[in-house]
Each structure stands twice: as C-alpha cells, then as structure tokens.
Amino acid sequence: MCGIAGFNWNNAEQIRQMTGILCHRGPDDEGFYCDERVCLGHRRLSIIDTSTRGHQPMAFEGLQIVYNGEVYNYRQLRTELESAGYRFHSDTDTEVVLLSYHRWGLDCVNRFNGMWAFCIYDANKRTLFLSRDRFGVKPLYYYFDGQRFIFASELKALRPIAGNLRTNNTAVNYFFYQKYIGADMTIFENCSKLRPSENLVFDLAKKQIHKSIYFTLPDAVEQHRGRDLTERLDEVEGLVSDAVTKRLIADVPVGSFLSGGLDSSVISAMIARQRRDFQTFSIGFEDDSYDEVPFSRIAAEHIHTRHHVEYLKIDEPLIERVIRQMDEPLGDASVLPTALLSQMTRRHVTVCLSGDAGDEVFGGYDSYLAHQLARFIPAGLVRMSRPLAAMLPPSEKKLHLAFKMQKFAGDYHPDPGRRHLDWMAAFTDRDRRALLGDNFIPAEDFMGPLGSGGLTGMQLNDFQRYLPEDILKKVDTASMMHSLEVRTPFLDYRLVPLVLSLPDRYKIRYLRTKRLLKDIAAGLLPGEIVHRKKRGFTVPVSAWLRKSPLIRQFITDREFYGHGLVNYDYAARLLAEHIHKSRDNARKLWLIFVFNYWRHTADRR
Question: How far does Cα 110 stand from its chain's mean position?
C-alpha cells in the first residue's frame, strides 16, 4: 500500500513535506512530479512488480498518476488493453489503472475489482481526477478554499500546507454520537474526504470541483433480487473462494489474520486449501473473556497453517502512539489490538488478508439480531422494562448481558433506522446534549436519510457509515502504522450485493446469525469454530479507566478542556459513577479521553 499527495501549484519543498508525513505508508520508495500547474507526490510500499519500473508518479501521454491500492483483476484488464494496441513497460497494476483511464476515461473505475485511492493529472484536459473504491477501503482527503486544492491519503498531511484549520462542530457531534466522523466530513472545516464509490474532477483552470457516484449498492442489490434464488445461493461460496484467490496476488509474502472467529477462519481455511505452509497470525490477552487464542489454535490446527501467536500488552505508550497516528478522533478501542497484530504480522509478511466486513455482508452483528427481535416485542413493554434493565449491575467482562439489555431497552427508538444508530451510539442525543452544551446538534440535523427499515436496510446503513468510517478506517490506520497491506475478500463488489439481496432467513434465522456463512464454514472448519458465540475484537476499556493514570488525567484535568467543546463537570460525573461501579460509562469516557488526547497532541504537531 502507498501514500499519495498533491496540490494545484508548484512548490517542490511543500510536496516533499507532505510525502514525508506519509512515509510509514510507503517505506520502499518516493517520487515527485511538478509543473507550472500541479505537484504530485508518492510513497511506495512495493507489492506487485517490486522493481524500479513501478516507480511513481507514473507517466503516459500527458498523464501522471499517483496511486494507492490494488486492482485484483489487472491482468485481465491488461490483456484487454493489449488487444486494443497498448504496450506495457511494467508488470504493475498501476500502469493498468493509468492506461485504463486513457482508454475509457472516468468510466474505467467501473471495470476495477479492488481497493484504491488515486489521482490522475490530465495535462491536456487540465484536470485532476481523484477516485475512491466502492466501499471505502482506502482513504482520500482533500482541502479546498476556493483557490487552493490539496489532497492526500491522510488528513495530517494536509494540515501543514492548508494552514490553520478550524474544528468542525458538526463533526464533533458526529464523533460523540457514533464514535467516528461520517459522511464526507472531517474534524476540520474546509477539509473533506471522498466518499466510497465517489469520483472527483478538479478543473485546474476554473478551480471548480465536480463529484459523481459511480456505484450505488442499493441499486446493485435490487438488480440481484430479480434473479432466481437458487442460482444466487449457488454462486455465493464460489464467489467467496474466488475473491480470496484474487487477493493472494503479490510479489511479496502474504499471510492471513486468524482470530478463531468465523470470518477470519473461513478466509484462512480457503487459503489453506490452495497454499501449503501458509502463515496465519493472532494475538492474545491475559483476560480470558477477551482472549481468543485457544480458538485460533483450534482453527489453525484444523486447516494446517503455520500459526504465529503472541501475547501482547496494551500499555500507555501504545495508546499514545496510536492516537497520535490518528488523522482525527476515532473512538473504536479495537484499533489498539489491531495495531499490535499488524506490528507482529509485519515481521513475517507484507500483505495480510482479513475477515473484515463479514458481519456487514452476512448479518453477524448483535444489533441486527436485536432488530429482528424488536419486531416481535411491543414498544410499551420495552419502555416498561427500562427501570429493571437500569438496575442490572455493571461488569468488566466483554459484552456482558447487562450491557446488551440496557442498550436494547434504554436506547429503543420507534424508527428502525434511528434505533439501529442509537444502539450503536456511545452518546445518544439525551446524553450528548449534557456533554456538549451549546455545541450540541441533534442527530437528525447531520445524519441524513437513514434508509428503509428491515435487516437489509440496517446492513446498507452500515455500508454507508460504520464500515468505511470505523472498521475500515481503523484497519487502515493500524496496519499502515507498520507498512502492512490488509486485503478484505468479503468486500469483493461482486459478492456484497449478491448476499445482501438474499432473504433475511439466510442471514439470521432462529437467533442464529450469519446462517449462510456458517453453512459454508461447515465444510471447512470444526463445529466449535462454526457455532461459537460472536466475541468481536475488543479490549477491556472499563478496567483501564480505573487503572490508567494517563486516561484518568485527560478526563479529570481541566487544562484539557480548553477547547470549550466538552462539559468538564459532566465528564467528571461520568468518571465518578464509573469508578464507584454504579454505572458502566466506559464507552462514553473512552471517547472523551480520545478526543481530549487527540486535540491536545494535534494542536502541538
């Protein structure tokens, strides 16, 4: 994977400054292109054709490209381009992307199967063409003030060039509601991100932005629904297998994460059928309720991989290092073990496959199950149960029953779309008003359309918001810290709409989540892996809040509230309740800590 950057003027020193900030994304090479109109910069992590022929920016007939990603069907596209008379000088997918644009223009992205964020400078048309992959695996940020247009793989690379940036209060509200910043917003005003499936063309002469969406998931789902059900079901396993095979293409060592959960185990098992002595990776924790190493060992022994396991400690230096790496506040604490896993994995391989998006595609989240249950429980009964649920004692164990019951009853909303978001939320509107005071903005003012109800509606909602801006952003941040490329087979664009088009009973049936994937897994894995309860990749935040001086300091010291965005007295009350175990406020307090620490250190960068 790589890092890209650029802007619409000529300044060689500034483009070098930007790519220097991105060096962890591409430690193998760097390159620059400048003319009177633009500067482009690139940091390379060599994956396919590791020779100097893959150096970027790469040129072809008035075009220059800086590219971050992998197009897995590049060989087929190359053959098609060669038939049309094109000649290649490297074995890279970068050159295929560049020549595809020359051949098909902006429509080239519809032919790509992969993950990408790139910019193509077209000197003849005097444009910059930016694109992000269908599901937002790879990030791409930009700044525009009416005159200056700047883009980069990471928000932090924009800041020294853009100058002083004001905090976006709507983004702050979004963060404290969903623990990430969604839509096209960033934490700073005038800074945006390309949405998944979005193209952007910047007219260098007129200094205007034109954006368009080239792939719409709901439409793709509807197209599949018109097909025969048996035919669709028969295709799924073959598509998963083919998606895995395509993501093994590399000229460097490739491995796979293997937690022992269903998703990563299915991916690893399919790889093991194709490759002998394949390497898999897992980390463990001392707390048994969070440790999944025993399950990862069972899976590895069954599929015969060379399994690497390390018991690693999440300490304060790691917490500080990871939050400093963040472009903007991200409240998903699982970024910490993901960073440790990536660090350990990178010592052995350069590319790693993961089971990310298995829950969104096949219907694995507890919130999906709760949504199915909520259809049969009268709203009045839920309201009556709230006082009883609130009396349940808190626990430091992972995803304990009391927490689930309190979320179900306490954050029950009559609208299914809003209910799903409130169940996922750390601070609902009621609590966020107390936290942010005059800075509070109601969720309906910034969340946009919530889509239709139903299980598929919940999944589409997560594909629009939670998956790209939390899960995929977390993995990109953690893996790129250690120059590790992570690939996600479950996000093959052929597979996702096909599975989402299936009736609910193939996702959740009789309280059994991910029914179809479990049926596939039954032919690959032992029953204790296939039918184990979902645990997720989380960490003991509740215990840390009681033990960590660093976390406590950034919640209790008034000096860290100088930004004026968060109510100190309310935060202190949340911490007191948590310390005395009268209420589990771990998720809320973690967000306050992350925001205060990120803001404090970001202001000093």
Answer: 21
CB 198, CB 132: distance < 8 Å: yes
Q: Is the pLDDT of residue 599 over 70?
A: yes
Query: Using one digit for the tens of pLDDT, what is the confidence trace for 124-155?
Result: 999 999 999 999 999 999 999 999 999 999 99
Longest dimension (CA), the chain: 73
Per-chain mean pLDDT for the chain: 91
- Computed from CA positions of residues 331, 257, 457, 73, in that sequence, does the dihedral angle turn out positive or negative? positive
Give the per-residue pLDDT at 347: 97
pLDDT band at 374 (very low <50, low <70, confident <90, very high): low
Residue 96 DSSP class: H
How far, in Å, CA of 496 to CA of 236, rounded? 10
3-state SS of 268-290 is HHHHHCCCCCCEEEEEECCCCCC
For residue 234, is pLDDT > 80?
yes
DSSP string covering 209-222: EEEEE---HHHHHH
CATH code of 218-311+322-362+457-530, in short, is 3.40.50.620
Is 2 among the residues known to form the active site? yes
- Return the bridge partners of 309, or none: 282
Cα 299 to the center of its chain, rounded Å:
25
> What CA–CA distance (Å, rounded) separates 481 from 342?
8
How many CA atoms lie within 13 Å of 565's alpha carbon, on the beta-carbon side? 20
| Domain boundaries defined on the chain | 3-140+194-215, 218-311+322-362+457-530, 540-605
Phi, psi of 63 (to 5 degrees): -110, 145
pLDDT 10s digits, 157-166: 999 999 889 9
DSSP 8-state secondary structure symbol assigned to residue 8? S
Q: What is the DSSP letter of 109?
A: G
Side-chain-side CA neighbours of 339 within 13 Å: the count stands at: 24
Question: Amino acid identity of 285?
Answer: F
pLDDT at 93: 97
Query: Which of 119-128, 135-144, 378-387 is predicted least confidently?
Result: 378-387
Judge if the upstream peptide bond of residue 196 is cis by omega within 30 degrees of 0: no
- Is the pTM here over 0.85, yes or no? yes
Decide: 249 and 93 in contact? Cβ < 8 Å: no
Q: For residues 349 and 343, what is the distance between their CA atoms, to the nearest angstrom? A: 10
**Per the CATH hierarchy, to which homologous superfamily does domain 3-140+194-215 belong?**
Aminohydrolase, N-terminal nucleophile (Ntn) domain (3.60.20.10)
Confidence of residue 391 (pLDDT cuts 50, 70, 90): very low
DSSP 3-state of 55: coil
CB contact set of 80 (below 8 Å; sequence gap of 6+): none
How far is Cα 94 from Cα 65, in angstroms, rounded to an integer?
8
pLDDT at 515: 95
Active-site residue identified among 2, 34, 191, 352: 2
CA-closest candidate to residue 128, choices 177, 83, 64? 64
| 161 vs 207: CA distance, rounded Å | 18
Instruction: End-to-end CA distance of the chain: give it in Å, rounded.
Output: 25
**Bridge partners (DSSP) listed for residue 40:** 6, 33
Q: CB-based burial of residue 220 (10 Å sphere; 0-12 exposed, 13-18 middle, 19+ buried)?
A: middle
- Beta bridge partners, 256, equal 280, 353
Partners of residue 200 on adjacent β-strands:
130, 211
- The contacts of residue 523 (CB under 8 Å, 6+ apart) are none
| Pick from 482, 194, 528: nearest CA to 344 | 482
